[in-house]
């Protein structure tokens, strides 16, 4: 269990999420989101939002990152999540200084990784620019969650 993330780790994860957001496919909302997962071995897995012409089929950055970790057989090894986002400028770079918080569906997707990994994940919420970081725990963002334990799975 990662209790308190060192500031350097927080900065590294946010930088990775910002780099990932540059690959967002977000021509409809023009809101780029990047997510970075800290893995138990110290490596980082990232994702960016992938929108769709059928708007409701769009994939959030956090979900893309978690699916990538799962595809690598590492769903249980996620120890922290960072998310950043912001409105894209003309060149496609996310902008702004207001931290972004995971949407409700992403909180539930993060919860699957958290509960299967036996952790209460730190979720770091930052903006495209600036130093503001809101440090949450998943259990604060999604209290009383429905999860694998409700189906007898651990
Ligand atoms: O937690 C979130 C919230 C929103 N988005 C994306 C979805 C859509 O592409 C864009 C605007 O909602 O931001 C994410 O990637 N993660």
TrEMBL record:
Gene3D superfamilies per UniProt: Cytidine Deaminase, domain 2 (3.40.140.10)
Catalytic activity: 2'-deoxycytidine + H2O + H(+) = 2'-deoxyuridine + NH4(+); cytidine + H2O + H(+) = uridine + NH4(+)
Keyword Nucleotide-binding: no
GO molecular function annotations of the record: cytidine deaminase activity
EC number(s) on file: 3.5.4.5
CDD domains: cytidine_deaminase
Cofactor(s) the protein needs: Zn(2+)
Enzymatic class: hydrolase
Domain spans labelled CMP/dCMP-type deaminase: 8-149
Alphabetical list of InterPro entries matching this protein: CMP_dCMP_dom, Cyt/Deoxycyt_deaminase, Cyt_deam_tetra, Cytidine_deaminase-like
Superkingdom to which the source organism belongs: Bacteria
Keywords: Hydrolase, Metal-binding, Zinc
Family assignment from sequence similarity: Belongs to the cytidine and deoxycytidylate deaminase family.
Function (record text): This enzyme scavenges exogenous and endogenous cytidine and 2'-deoxycytidine for UMP synthesis.
Protein name: Cytidine deaminase
Annotated organism of origin: Sphingomonas aurea
Biological classification of the source: Bacteria, Pseudomonadati, Pseudomonadota, Alphaproteobacteria, Sphingomonadales
